[in-house]
Design goal:
about 550 residues; alpha/beta; 6-stranded antiparallel β-sheet
Length: about 550
């Protein structure tokens, strides 16, 4: 291996251009980046991925690279290294042959760590290169197994004697709070949910127990059950963390909190609602700030991608993203903003709440109690010299009218609406009180979307489609399709991850004429199809035939009588 700088080596490997390297070197000299390593900056600026950089680094050090997120580790081998040492050196044992223990780390040059691990394990140590975040995720995943049950037992034992509200407040303000069983339980619930890629955590009180369920891939699955005697203490802990009034138990409350999990800062939105047997808490796990996706990553087909990008090129008008709650509308809007926001443009958003903080974009948070409503915020925003406005949701006629007027007067407006498909969005706006000709004049395009679950590649089963399936798929004979089975890798659900399906309606002169005369949704849908709009079912059927999802999902997501 030639002893050349890592930047030049990345150029030789075709992962970086000289121009990109010059950009990174210039950025490294900036005040805010002083002390940052070149590699960290290259990854931060998204010029190469963490894995790509680690692979090149491993090659330079003449050691192998391991992708811990994809590797199958064995718990008994991992536990050869005590948790405190694994966290101290950010390493994890991945393999053992005889008396040789292979350890993955992001710092394979740490010979002190190697000697310490050799003394503790009694094995000779060989290092493999891994990315730091992947090591932290693996440590969290393996060392947390079995610990939660112990924490629940410990917390239950402590709460056998009822703890007063005053005691809980004292405990919450204690310097040694992290050692309290109920605190460890609250942390463990969030950590386990995050590692299972959950989007929501439900803490539900019942007569004799409290059920904790998490939403994974759109479905609620049970995480654990705890004694009802722990419920008040657990709820109080979350109320303290999210800034709620712990003495108020009669009315709903909302709050926000954050927690560091496996080196990642995780933001959570907390909602509290009084129920028959106590207060129910739902925590929404928000994506981290740097996870704003690009449009190419939304799962659009090439055909839909071209239609969507053509909408974003129009300088003024309104683009609507529609679908039910939890269908990824906000993700699509954020991706669109990332595409069109330029340094010479003033981009302002009005959201309730602000789910992701985006660099260089002005984001406004709704506060209805203080009178900061969507329509009030939107009126003010129009006096802030905006070029692009994003309205989190058109909830009422007032907001919709102001947004449409803003689009007509020369602004690009992006917003969401809760409708079943693209065509019914137009009629919904007219029903809300927006004049039809104003809708027709301002509309650029409508993106209707849903999220469909993806089959687990490790257990999906090949089968032949039946007559009913053929009708849904639009084929005249049986074809090969896959169905869900279930294995330990997908929590026995048969599905891992989700992808979006879309239908995109474009505003053409013919469409504008149809909207102006207040045509019904079925007429608008018919014209849209004639003009090349592929429906949600067409998009999902395409994924079924590619083996990405199942006929069952096609029915669940798009079936209508």
């Amino acid at each position: 291996m030639k002893n050349i700088p890592i930047g030049e080596h990345l150029i030789e490997k075709g992962l970086l251009t000289q121009e990109q390297l010059d950009q990174v070197l210039a950025a490294q000299k900036e005040e805010k980046n002083k002390g940052k390593k070149l590699g960290d900056l290259i990854v931060e600026m998204k010029m190469v991925t963490e894995n790509q950089f680690a692979e090149v680094l491993a090659e330079r050090l003449n050691i192998s690279f391991v992708d811990l997120d994809a590797a199958e580790l064995q718990s008994d081998i991992v536990k050869k290294i005590p948790e405190d040492k694994a966290r101290k050196y950010n390493c994890i044992a991945v393999n053992k042959v005889g008396r040789r223990l292979t350890v993955a780390t992001d710092n394979p040059s740490d010979f002190y760590a190697m000697e310490d691990l050799r003394a503790i394990t009694g094995c000779s140590i060989s290092f493999q290169m891994a990315t730091g975040p992947a090591v932290m995720r693996a440590i969290g995943r393996f060392y947390s197994q079995g610990v939660t049950e112990t924490i629940v037992e410990e917390a239950t034992k402590e709460k056998e004697e009822q703890v007063s509200l005053d005691d809980l407040v004292t405990e919450a303000s204690n310097d040694r709070i992290d050692n309290a069983p109920i605190v460890k339980l609250a942390n463990a619930i969030i950590e386990n949910s995050f590692r299972k890629e959950a989007t929501d955590i439900h803490i539900e009180p019942f007569a004799t127990e409290t059920k904790i369920r998490i939403r994974v891939n759109g479905d609620l699955i049970e995480l654990m059950r705890i004694s009802s005697s722990l419920h008040v203490a657990l709820v109080t802990r979350f109320k303290i963390l999210s800034g709620m009034n712990i003495a108020e138990k009669r009315i709903p409350q909302d709050g926000r909190m954050s927690q560091i999990i496996d080196g990642t800062v995780v933001d959570l939105r907390v909602s509290n609602l009084p129920m028959v047997y106590g207060e129910k808490v739902v925590l929404r796990i928000l994506a981290s700030d740097d996870s704003v996706r690009k449009i190419q990553d939304l799962g659009m087909t090439d055909y839909n991608y071209e239609r969507f990008v053509s909408c974003l090129k129009v300088p003024q008008g309104v683009i609507l993203v529609t679908g039910p709650t939890g269908s990824g509308k906000s993700t699509t809007l954020y991706a669109a903003l990332g595409e069109i926001a330029k340094p010479n443009l003033n981009v302002i958003t009005v959201e309730d709440p602000v789910e992701k903080k985006i660099r260089d974009i002005n984001q406004c948070q709704i506060n209805e109690k203080a009178g900061m409503t969507f329509d009030a915020a939107l009126r003010s925003i129009l006096r802030q010299d905006p070029d692009i406005i994003m309205v989190g949701e058109m909830r009422d006629a007032e907001t919709a009218s102001i947004a449409i007027r803003a689009a007509i007067t020369g602004h690009l407006v992006l917003s969401t609406l809760h409708t079943n498909d693209a065509a019914s969005t137009v009629t919904r706006l007219v029903d809300m009180g927006v004049v039809a000709y104003m809708v027709a004049t301002s509309l650029i395009g409508i993106v209707a979307q849903r999220l469909t679950k993806k089959l687990c590649n490790d257990c999906k089963k090949l089968t032949m489609s039946k007559d009913f399936d053929n009708e849904l798929l639009g084929v005249d004979h049986s074809i090969e399709v896959y169905e869900a089975v279930g294995c330990h890798k997908c929590n026995d659900t048969g599905y891992r991850g989700r992808t979006a399906i879309h239908e995109i309606l474009l505003s053409t002169p013919e469409m504008m004429a149809l909207i102006t005369r207040e045509a019904k949704a079925d007429e608008i849908s018919t014209l849209a199809k004639e003009q090349g709009c592929k429906l949600l079912r067409d998009n999902c059927a395409e994924l079924v035939m590619k083996g990405v999802t199942s006929v069952e999902e096609l029915v669940r997501v798009t079936y209508a009588v």
